[in-house]
Amino acid sequence: MELVLFIFASSFPLIIATIAALSSEYAGRMIFFIDGLITLSAFICFAVTVKFNNFLLGIIFAIFIPALFVFIISYIVEKFNFDSFIVSLGQNIFLLSCVSVLSQIIFNNRGVLTSEVFVFSQQIFRVTSICVGFLICIIALIFFNKTKAGLYLKITGSDSNVLLSCGVSPSFYRVLSWVIASVLSSICGIILLLRLSSFVPGISSGIGWASLALVFLGK
Hints:
Distance between the termini: 33 Å
Number of strands: 0
């Protein structure tokens, strides 16, 4: 039973990342930097928790900082009509590089980071992953299918002219889709951090690319 719960809990980070990829796909701006976001968020959460001995503060910073960065980049992409595909790929490289540099500056170590301050049991990981995962799935279902904003976002990529005819800005929802994807990716990174009770440079393990594959295969 313990093994079943562990496998079940371990599947939710991928599910959350897939919802992140789906959000951006709906808006017609596929996100290619989920791996970078997961890794950066996990590092920020670990670093802030260790330095300030406050896990809640670590969670807040791990969600807010990447979301602010993604919002700024996404706004610039819309403002100057840049190629979102190229920008997205560039962001992934940039975010992963930032983690390496910050790890060296803060901890003088580019490898695995551990601390007595950051230790969690597998039970905490399982409960958190399953509860948060279910909650996000329910919220996503309601948002995309029952709210006006969710429905607007879903047709942004396929029928943006419909939004324009209704006086709604597709650019707003394209930016929103990346911010939503950023928040979900950050949550995914925090859950993976709980699983390991340490930060590992390759903590995302390709989840971001797997989530993109699932979106394409699921059509």
